[in-house]
From TrEMBL:
Name of the featured protein: Rab3 GTPase-activating protein non-catalytic subunit
Domain Rab3-GAP regulatory subunit N-terminal: 28-427
One matching Pfam family: RAB3GAP2_N
Membrane spanning stretches: none
Length: 466
């Protein structure tokens, strides 16, 4: 079928400013493994090892991006040249009250948060090591569950960290309030200041070691899970995590929020720091040292919480490469090095579907409008639809075949096959955090966008099935 029937052209991002990222060369968007892309509804972030480029656009009356309103922001993060630090992950943070920011991960394990204008808001060490991916779980829903937890998940080789979405939102709200109150204070915006972006209090988070079956190439926290059998019920919360990598195609872990410390360890963790602080204060009173420290204390990550292995699938030489999670976390699409795509039920931890012959593929979950009967045909003329009108599907981009296929979940047929030009990526706007004013009539489905790097064209996959 013709591509025009299934996609809507939205605009073009081409410009001279993209030459800093290699634009102008054929295949620049897909051939560079260090080039990162993250999409928001009105912005596109592209990054290489040392430069982040944010493209903003406003919408015209038709709802498409207005090329004349295009704005560009360049960010050069303060990275450590000694450790050859570089940008390794980017993702948008979008909240219900128009608070937006860009989360950036580095190869040294730092999480940076920038405003849409390029100002550093927060800098924090997560854990020494490369941040592979930043995953945002908002209030997007599928047809099997009501809501998914609000969180920001940081994936590192053999490590998973979890930040509460509410904590990040409160941090951003405070920063924007301070920004408004100090709007005319130019020193406040000095992004090169040594202390800029280093808040006194770091964001709380949980950290788990999931390297029992080898270092992971990708991972995700799929949601809350019940405690293990024969364990006393408590108020502690458990999460399920799925990892993929070279040594194990799929691994699953039960993540505990508590650190599983003994009674003696819990007492020592409280007594020892207090005792040390008392001794230090007493020594200062005696010697009254006036010598100021010339070096900032080295940032340290927190200890690991308990991660219990649940299952593992090893199938040498197959290696897990990419993982895509459904909105509720109940399904995960996993690509491997042998050109297969596995659909995993993350609750039963069972592979429920398998595709073959999709080398170098990438997957995104999408929601499509499915007309169920003729009596409902008149409703499709209206723009507003409820959640029940959509069916969950999986979009598979097979670059070697030059197509994008849309399959209905879980065991449904292939609904669409769309040609996709060489040098293109499929993208999806980041999940938006909860909105108190959201209603079923204003439900925004999961959408998939096409970005053609060679032409600069952005197009949207139409949700209608013709």
């Amino acid at each position: 079928m013709s591509r025009r029937l299934h996609t809507t052209e939205l605009g073009c991002i081409a410009g001279e400013d993209l030459s800093d990222l290699g634009a102008g060369k054929e295949g620049w968007l897909v051939d560079n493994p260090t080039l990162l892309v993250s999409l928001d509804t009105h912005s596109l972030a592209l990054a290489n090892r040392s430069l982040i480029l944010i493209l903003h656009w406003s919408q015209s009356i038709s709802g498409a991006p207005d090329p004349d309103a295009r704005q560009v922001v360049k960010i050069r993060p303060d990275l450590s040249p000694i450790e050859a630090e570089y940008v390794s992950a980017v993702e948008w943070l979008v909240f219900d009250d128009d608070i937006r920011a860009l989360a950036v991960g580095t190869s040294c394990g730092y999480l940076l948060i920038f405003s849409v204008h390029g100002y550093l808001i927060h800098r924090q060490i997560v854990n020494p090591g490369k941040i592979l991916k930043i995953r945002v779980r908002g209030t997007k829903q599928d047809l099997t569950q009501d809501t998914s937890p609000e969180e920001v998940c940081i994936v590192m080789p053999g490590v998973i960290a979890r930040f509460e979405g509410s904590g990040i939102k409160n941090l951003l709200r405070r920063w924007f309030q301070e920004t408004d109150s100090k709007f005319w204070d130019q020193e406040f915006y000095d992004a090169n200041s040594e202390d800029y972006g280093n808040s006194a209090t770091s964001l709380p988070y949980q950290l788990w070691n999931v390297s029992k079956y080898g270092l992971c190439a990708d991972a995700a926290i799929t949601g809350v899970m019940p405690p293990p059998l024969m364990e006393i019920q408590s108020s502690q919360r458990y999460y399920c995590a799925v990892t993929i990598g070279e040594d194990a195609v799929i691994s699953a872990f039960r993540l505990s929020v508590d650190k599983n410390r003994s009674l003696v360890g819990a007492i020592l963790s409280k007594v020892v720091p207090a005792t040390f602080s008392t001794i230090a204060s007493f020594s200062k009173l005696i010697w009254r040292s006036e010598e100021k420290p010339t070096k900032k204390p080295e940032a340290k990550s927190q200890p690991f919480a308990r991660a219990s292995p649940l299952t593992c699938l090893k199938d040498h030489p197959r290696k897990g490469e990419k993982l895509t999670l459904s909105p509720s976390g109940t399904l995960a699409a996993i690509t491997d090095s042998l050109g297969r795509i596995l659909l995993l039920d993350t609750q039963a931890l069972v592979v429920v579907r398998l595709w073959k012959g999709y080398r170098e593929a990438s997957c995104l979950f999408v929601e499509m409008l499915a007309r169920k009967d003729k009596a409902a045909a008149s409703r499709w003329a209206y723009d507003e639809h409820s959640k029940s009108d959509y069916c969950l599907c999986l979009a598979i981009h097979a670059p070697r075949k030059g197509i994008v296929e849309v399959w209905q979940m879980r065991t449904g047929p292939r609904l669409l096959t769309i040609p996709c030009p060489k040098g293109s990526k499929i993208l999806q706007p980041t999940y938006r955090f909860s909105s108190a004013t959201a209603s079923s009539s204003s439900y925004v489905p999961l959408q998939v966008f096409f970005l053609n790097g060679d032409s600069g064209q952005i197009s949207l996959l139409n949700p209608f099935l013709h």
